[in-house]
Amino acid sequence: MGDVDRIPPPRFQLGDPRWVLELRYLPWPVAWAACFGRPGPLHVELGFGDGAFLAALARRMPAANLVGVERALEPTRWALRRMRREGVENVRLVLGDAFAALAFLFEPGSIEGLYVNFPDPWPKARHHHRRLLTPGFLHLAAHRLQPGGLLTIATDDPDYALWIAEALRDTPGLESVFETPWVHALPGREPTRYERKALAAGRPCFYFVWRRSGAVPAPVLPRIMRGEASMPHRIWEGDPDLSQVAAQLRGRLWQDGETIWRVKGLYRAVEGEGLLIELLMAEGSWVETVALIFRPHGPGLWILKPAEIGGLRPTLALKMGVQRIAQAIEEATPGLRVVSSTI
């Protein structure tokens, strides 16, 4: 197991219901007017970093309801501190995956302004599938914008800018508010911390502002299981050899029609026994990375289940992915006996 990374311990806990909402606990979709306690134009930032841009929007648009989405804990902590310090009342922070949040938390045609600031460009060609701003994502974004609503994107990566421009041109129902796909300055814009560094270093920034100007067909989304369905899991009795399990899982790839699963990484627990399994799932245009945990579950028992991070819901693809990982674990340790399973 020497080449299996170790899981870092949790660094802090979140739990401020006034500002922070966790994707996995929210209804789909959310009644945002009820959540804020008032109606108002809905503005959404995906990947809010330290929250400075979001807080500036909130100050500039006091009548609007602003939602920030971030999957990482540390930036959420920074932003939460900022909202408390500045007394911002019209912002809610959602901890979870940006694509999933946009797909399931927001009604079609409900967002007045959508902002994506300096997403990771993943410059290597073999990593392009990890980019947020794929054609599938932009189609979904257009569908969630209200007629006349604006999608604003910022990047300092020229190659990514060309990628985004091409994808936007092919997205139904969107048009640039400028004569060109992007501009290099937006007067009155509140720069992000990363943006300030890029400008100080002399790197040009590319700003896209595209308006929903026409009809947008409904995007194809993952198949969600019934609301009462539990998270997929399996419990065994036995004594698995984690080295054999890791060897069996490392680099595995499965495909069923248009759905693909690939094991991206394996991580060993810092304390006690167990593995965290990083699993890439692609279902058509929907690409998501999830974490599964394989760990002890009482004397002589082991459990495989989704980790409680990232705002997962029980999609059919997730259930089938857990099933494939479970089968691989059983191949590595034939002596395991299933005592409970939802897959």
TrEMBL record:
<feature type="binding site">
    <location>
        <begin position="192"/>
        <end position="195"/>
    </location>
    <ligand>
        <name>substrate</name>
    </ligand>
</feature>
<comment type="pathway">
    <text>tRNA modification; N(7)-methylguanine-tRNA biosynthesis.</text>
</comment>
<dbReference type="InterPro" id="IPR003358">
    <property type="entry name" value="tRNA_(Gua-N-7)_MeTrfase_Trmb"/>
</dbReference>
<keyword id="KW-0808">Transferase</keyword>
<dbReference type="Pfam" id="PF02390">
    <property type="entry name" value="Methyltransf_4"/>
</dbReference>
<feature type="binding site">
    <location>
        <position position="70"/>
    </location>
    <ligand>
        <name>S-adenosyl-L-methionine</name>
    </ligand>
</feature>
<feature type="binding site">
    <location>
        <position position="97"/>
    </location>
    <ligand>
        <name>S-adenosyl-L-methionine</name>
    </ligand>
</feature>
<feature type="binding site">
    <location>
        <position position="156"/>
    </location>
    <ligand>
        <name>substrate</name>
    </ligand>
</feature>
<dbReference type="InterPro" id="IPR029063">
    <property type="entry name" value="SAM-dependent_MTases_sf"/>
</dbReference>
<feature type="binding site">
    <location>
        <position position="45"/>
    </location>
    <ligand>
        <name>S-adenosyl-L-methionine</name>
    </ligand>
</feature>
<comment type="similarity">
    <text>Belongs to the class I-like SAM-binding methyltransferase superfamily. TrmB family.</text>
</comment>
<feature type="binding site">
    <location>
        <position position="124"/>
    </location>
    <ligand>
        <name>substrate</name>
    </ligand>
</feature>
<comment type="function">
    <text>Catalyzes the formation of N(7)-methylguanine at position 46 (m7G46) in tRNA.</text>
</comment>
<keyword id="KW-0489">Methyltransferase</keyword>
<dbReference type="GO" id="GO:0043527">
    <property type="term" value="C:tRNA methyltransferase complex"/>
</dbReference>
<keyword id="KW-0819">tRNA processing</keyword>
<dbReference type="InterPro" id="IPR055361">
    <property type="entry name" value="tRNA_methyltr_TrmB_bact"/>
</dbReference>
<keyword id="KW-0949">S-adenosyl-L-methionine</keyword>
<protein>
    <recommendedName>
        <fullName>tRNA (guanine-N(7)-)-methyltransferase</fullName>
        <ecNumber>2.1.1.33</ecNumber>
    </recommendedName>
</protein>
<dbReference type="GO" id="GO:0008176">
    <property type="term" value="F:tRNA (guanine(46)-N7)-methyltransferase activity"/>
</dbReference>
<feature type="binding site">
    <location>
        <position position="120"/>
    </location>
    <ligand>
        <name>S-adenosyl-L-methionine</name>
    </ligand>
</feature>
